[in-house]
């Protein structure tokens, strides 16, 4: 029993202990406020990085006291290096460390053996060859070093570092011929540009100018045969080399060969700048100017900024005012060239370009630019696209006539222009008229008439008829004018101006009957653009001829067509100005007729205008009775309101307007009575308000 009880007691203790382990006690934080000094993650990272840089204590120094201990040390180190190499043979750094350790022990033969073993593993490693050769040179093993360099450049001929090191070693040893031989072997591989310049500089260090020139020639030939787009700077270096050694003729020849080689397809501004500066140093200023102008005429503007700058500086230093102006003109010409290349149909740019060229260039250059400009025909046959373009032809013809004095070319320009215009769709009367005027200035009247006749036959226009008629009038060819007017009126019978001009021509010529017949034909046309002008001209014509009865008849005929107030007023003023007996009574009678005729007119403003004109007449020529009568006819002006509607039919508010009420209109009598009663009531209201405002004043007035 005692053993069992102890076992049970032990089980309870174990379960109690297990329960205590499952629920660990957590320490309670008494102060949960944040610490005064906060530590950020950045500070933690910075501190960890700083501790990385702390130096570990150096290993203890090992002192070797005898040969046996040294051999033991060497054996252990060699075993370590060999184990590292055996683990990974391709890690060249292990081989190099092994060889350098052997070299530090003056075991050159062992180091050489290690390098050879490493080369068997990776003979393409450049660092390995360099370390091997440097070891031999450091230990003054010149022949061994030469052997290594020869093997290196034979195995890896495209590694320029081997060649540089090899030639430098031979030159430091004073073996100039050997170094030159190495350079020659290198040049056979056609290396990059810097290798050639290194060879040239090597020869120049030993004053071998002829050899250096030969190398330059070989290099230029190499660039011509091998490189598709050779660089300009190589030619410039060659020329400067010749210039530096005072071979100026050779330098100029190099520049000329370069210009010829690159041609106009691959022009570079740097070549021409260098060429011009060379000639400037030689005091050949005219050659400099020619070089700059040649280049500026052929290199695009965006690629010739430096060229422009140097040319400007040159002209400011050695040129005159004309030269400076020339470069400014050249610069502007380049700008215009770029604009017209970007958009050939930008006619404004062509106009500016042509204006510049005309002010400075010769006739052939101007003609060339004009031909280029007029070649850009608008792609769409619509007149609005041709309006600017056609002025190129006009300016071209005027230039040939006035500046170049070439009448034959001027005629060709006009003829080419009129052939180019699509006359079936539209035409330009200006071109035909300028062509005809040019032929007249050349005293070639038949050609002028033929041109105008062709224009009227192909594409009749009012302006063409007017210009042709004006020409014949100046030549006093009145029969031709009559024929032209007849053709003109057949083409445009609604043009009132043409009828009037035709009638005026006949009037000037003294043929009154023809003029009257023309007017009669004109007013009989079914459609006219300005009939009021035509009737006024006809009436003025009859008044000038003092045909008053015919004038009255014309007014009556006009009033049958229109009841416009201005016609009535003009009729009344005509009767007044006739100056005969009974003119006042006839004038008053016309006003009476007009007033009766316009009673049913909806436009009350016109009737008011008539009555005002009548009143002015009566004030000047009438009696008191007539004046009183016209005053009674004058309307009352009242203000009214009417409702407005928007486009969608909704109400838009009210607006005020003025209306007229005429006394003689019987329909308006109730309105007049109502208006009079309203005025009387308003007057009474005003009087009563005045009496209420100041009653004492009324009492004092009554006492007095």
UniProtKB/TrEMBL annotation:
- Which residue range or ranges hold the Pre-mRNA-splicing factor Syf1/CRNKL1-like C-terminal HAT-repeats domain? 93-385, 393-556
Report keywords, A-Z.
Answer: mRNA processing, mRNA splicing, Nucleus, Phosphoprotein, Repeat, Spliceosome
Q: Does the keyword Repeat apply?
A: yes
Q: What are the boundaries of the region Disordered?
A: 1-29, 685-704
Subcellular localization is given as: Nucleus speckle
GO terms (BP aspect): spliceosomal complex assembly
Biased composition of type Acidic residues is found at 689-704
Instruction: Please indicate which superkingdom the organism of origin belongs to.
Output: Eukaryota
Under InterPro entries, the record lists: HAT, HAT_Syf1_CNRKL1_C, Syf1-like, TPR-like_helical_dom_sf
Question: Chief location of this protein?
Answer: nucleus
Keyword Nucleus in the entry? The reply is yes
- One Pfam match, given by its short name, reads HAT_Syf1_CNRKL1_C
Gene Ontology CC, one term: nuclear speck
**Known function:** Involved in pre-mRNA splicing process. As a component of the minor spliceosome, involved in the splicing of U12-type introns in pre-mRNAs.
User: Which family does the record assign?
Assistant: Belongs to the crooked-neck family.
Q: What is this protein called?
A: Crooked neck-like protein 1
Say which species the protein is native to. Answer: Steatornis caripensis (Oilbird)
Q: What is the lineage of its organism?
A: Eukaryota, Metazoa, Chordata, Craniata, Vertebrata
Instruction: Identify the gene encoding this protein.
Output: Crnkl1
């Amino acid at each position: 029993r005692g053993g069992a009880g102890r076992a049970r007691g032990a089980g309870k203790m174990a379960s109690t202990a297990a329960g205590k382990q499952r629920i660990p006690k957590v320490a309670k934080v008494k102060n949960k406020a944040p610490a005064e000094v906060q530590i950020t993650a950045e500070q933690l990272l910075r501190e960890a990085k700083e501790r990385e840089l702390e130096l570990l204590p150096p290993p203890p120094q090992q002192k070797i006291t005898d040969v046996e201990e040294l051999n033991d040390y060497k054996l252990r180190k060699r075993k370590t290096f060999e184990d590292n190499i055996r683990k990974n043979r391709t890690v060249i750094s292990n081989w190099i460390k092994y060889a350098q350790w052997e070299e530090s022990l003056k075991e050159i033969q062992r180091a050489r053996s290690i390098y050879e073993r490493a080369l068997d593993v990776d003979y393409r490693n450049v660092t390995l060859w360099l370390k091997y050769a440097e070891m031999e040179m450091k230990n003054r093993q010149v022949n061994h070093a030469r052997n290594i360099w020869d093997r290196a450049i034979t195995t890896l001929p495209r590694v320029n570092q081997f060649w540089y090191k090899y030639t430098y070693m031979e030159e430091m040893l004073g073996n100039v011929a050997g170094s030159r031989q190495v350079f020659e072997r290198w040049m056979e591989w056609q290396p990059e540009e810097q290798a050639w310049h290194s060879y040239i500089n090597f020869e120049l260090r030993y004053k071998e100018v002829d050899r250096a020139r030969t190398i330059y020639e070989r290099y230029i030939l190499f660039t011509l045969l091998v490189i598709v787009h050779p660089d300009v700077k190589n030619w410039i270096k060659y020329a400067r080399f010749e210039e530096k050694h005072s071979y100026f003729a050779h330098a100029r020849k190099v520049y000329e060969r370069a210009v010829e080689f690159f041609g106009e397809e691959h022009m570079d501004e740097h070549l021409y700048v260098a060429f011009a500066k060379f000639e400037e140093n030689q005091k050949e200023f005219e050659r400099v100017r020619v070089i700059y102008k040649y280049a500026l005429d052929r290199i695009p503007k965006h690629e010739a900024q430096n060229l422009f700058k140097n040319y400007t500086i040159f002209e400011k230093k050695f040129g005159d005012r004309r030269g400076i102006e020339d470069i400014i003109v050249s610069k502007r010409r380049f700008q215009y060239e770029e604009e017209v290349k970007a958009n050939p149909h930008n006619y404004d740019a062509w106009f500016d370009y042509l204006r510049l060229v005309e002010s400075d260039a010769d006739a052939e250059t101007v003609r060339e630019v004009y031909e280029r400009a007029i070649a850009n025909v608008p792609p769409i046959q619509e007149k609005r696209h041709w309006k600017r373009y056609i002025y190129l032809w006009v300016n071209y013809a005027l230039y040939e006539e006035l500046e170049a004095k070439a009448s034959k070319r001027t005629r060709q320009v006009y003829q080419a222009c009129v052939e180019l215009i699509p006359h079936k769709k539209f035409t330009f009367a200006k071109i035909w008229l300028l062509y005809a005027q040019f032929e007249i200035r050349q005293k070639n009247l038949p050609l002028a008439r033929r041109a105008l006749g062709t224009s009227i036959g192909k594409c009749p226009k009012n302006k063409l008829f007017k210009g042709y008629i004006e020409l014949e009038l100046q030549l006093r060819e009145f029969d031709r004018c009559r024929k032209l007017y007849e053709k003109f009126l057949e083409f445009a019978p609604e043009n009132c101006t043409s009828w009037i001009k035709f009638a005026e021509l006949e009037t000037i010529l003294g043929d009154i009957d023809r003029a009257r017949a023309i007017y009669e034909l004109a007013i009989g046309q079914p459609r006219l653009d300005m009939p009021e002008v035509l009737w006024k001209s006809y009436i003025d014509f009859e008044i000038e001829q003092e045909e008053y009865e015919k004038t009255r008849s014309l007014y009556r005929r006009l009033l049958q067509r229109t009841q416009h107030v201005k016609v009535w007023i003009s009729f009344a003023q005509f009767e007044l100005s006739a100056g005969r007996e009974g003119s006042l009574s006839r004038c008053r009678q016309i006003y009476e007729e007009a007033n009766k005729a316009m009673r049913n007119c909806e436009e009350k403003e016109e009737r008011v205008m008539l009555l005002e004109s009548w009143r002015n007449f009566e004030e000047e020529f009438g009696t008191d009775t007539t004046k009183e009568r016209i005053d009674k006819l004058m309307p009352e002006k009242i203000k009214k309101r009417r409702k407005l509607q928007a486009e969608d039919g909704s109400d838009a508010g009210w607006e005020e307007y003025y209306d007229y009420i005429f006394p003689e209109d019987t329909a308006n009598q109730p309105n007049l009575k109502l208006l009079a009663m309203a005025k009387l009531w308003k007057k009474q209201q005003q009087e009563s308000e005045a009496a209420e405002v100041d009653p004492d004043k009324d009492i004092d007035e009554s006492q007095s």
